[in-house]
Amino acid sequence: MNTLLSIGHGYSAQALARRLLPQGWQIIGTTRTEAGAEALRATGVQALVWPGADLTAALAQATHLLTSVAPGDSDPVLQAIGPQIAASKLQWMGYLSTTAVYGHHNGDWVDETTPLAPTTARGAARVQAEADWTALGLPLHIFRLAGIYGPGRGPFEKVRDGTARRIHKAGQVFSRIHVDDIANVLHAALLRPHPGIYNVCDDDPASPEDILGLAAELLGLPPPPIVPYEKADMTPMARSFYAENKRVRNDRIKAVLGVKLEYPTYREGLAAILAAGG
Questions:
Q1: Cα(49)–Cα(29) distance, rounded to whole angstroms?
Q2: What percent of the chain has pLDDT above 70?
Q3: Nearest-angstrom CA–CA distance, 97 and 130
Q4: What is the DSSP pairing of strand 92-98 with strand 226-228?
Q5: How far apart are CA 208 and CA 167, in angstroms?
Q6: Cis (ω within 30 of 0) for the bond into 51?
Q7: What are the DSSP calls for 184-238, one per residue?
Q8: Which of 14, 114, 203, 205 could disulfide-pair with 110, CB 3.0 to 4.6 Å?
């Protein structure tokens, strides 16, 4: 039986699980709380609370491993069970990283061959984690995710309640990916394993203004007010995203994994979220 051990079984991994469980996969997922574990068990996932649980038996069962855990000063999964993972007999290994590893490129295009030059601590930690996972010598697939959106993580609630603001920074664009297309890419990589690095994003990098403008249009509401970046009230994390400006290419997921995106742009993605009640 194909058994996926999913460490940090969150938003993206749960979207993958919804595809795999009906196909007969066994999925063992970790979460931080017992309440989270109960919610996962209700979906058919064998849930463990970790940190805390001993993952030795789960790792012994696993044919495939996916980790979605973000690094701090180091990667917590490697720190806890790195030697056991290195000694395992996994057929497939996946690591969810981020396009923040590329840093700032003045709005130019980047691909998987672009030298890594992170400008944030978050991006630098991911570069180190990617290197540490690679050093294990496993059949590793690194997925560099763009900004994630989807059901429950769309712009509609803020547009509806009037709290949305279109922050304007000249020339600023972001690459994005619908959570179902993350699952789409991961599923393709499970079916056609080809270890390597993959950018996971849609075809159309766009400004935050465009996304919020379309969300308002779809709702039949006036567009949110524009606020200059310099005057915008943002958290340090939100402001750090605006420190980097790049367009991310996704050719490799199509050429190597045979992926056809379900939501090639934010237009299709937002329309689908709204149609589903998002």
A1: 9
A2: 100
A3: 8
A4: unpaired
A5: 7
A6: yes
A7: HHHHHHHHS---EEEEE--S--B-HHHHHHHHHHHHT-PPPPEEEGGG----HHH
A8: 114
